[in-house]
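Write out a record, fold above all:
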Amino acid sequence: MSFSSAVRTFRRSDRHQLTDLVNRHAAAVLPGVSTSVNTVLSSLEAQPDEYVVDPWVAERLTLVTEHRGRVVAAAHLHRYRDEPDVGPDHRGAAAVQWVVHHPGDGDGGSAGSDAADLLLSACLATATRWRARGVHADGTLPCPGVYGVPDAWPHVRSALKRAGFVHTGATEVLLLAEVSDLPDPGERAGRESPTLRRTLGPLGTRFTALAGDRVLGHLELDTTLDRPERVGRGGGLAELTDVELDADAPEGADETLARLLAQARDWLTLCGIDRLLTSAYPEELDEIDALHRHGFREVTRTARGWALRTA
């Protein structure tokens, strides 16, 4: 190569450059999303939210490529235990949990791409040293809503493909709504409406629409995405984690959804949250159309599940 670069183990002194690189990638996926230095550092040691998979990790390693004193690429690797209690897809495998890199070096050169290739080569060499049964890749950053390899990262997708990875999983559509664009509770206040109940659900705060004892539908909100220890600034973001509707509801499933989202809007406003994130699969056209009707817009698509091609 025509420039000085080297792959090395992450050092604590890299933390600000690494966080900046992570946040640049996150900001290209979801507007206003960022994470803190402390969250990035903590995520290199553990992922407590991944309470099933995280205990399977036997070893963690973060590598960076340095170019002219600047961290231009970074990757975080996991080695999973080869033991019976580990899920079969992870058992004995290695994973590039995320890889990020500058598309270019800022002066018209190709240092970013070259640095990524050098970094992924080192990742694969590490997997070989670990005697991994397989190697997976993803882009799950310590930021809400950033996972897989989003369309906004063509440079990362290209680097993974050059390294021999292929997309083997599903694609998800990420949708975002401004809370003020959700159905207005005031427009439904005068109508005869079902009973709306708020409870704690398995994925967050649950809102249920009831007609007597009949459940017409429910949705759940995760309003903990922007915990102070996780974000660099208050982002005002929540996630619509689950929706289930009775297709035979008297007023129709779409009206039930509108009522639930109106209730969610009122609650999110009280929480000081101004944006709501959710996801769907591209083939779920009716669901996506309904979300579009009620204030959501598509912000990106992300490809989940990448694996190293085997001969």
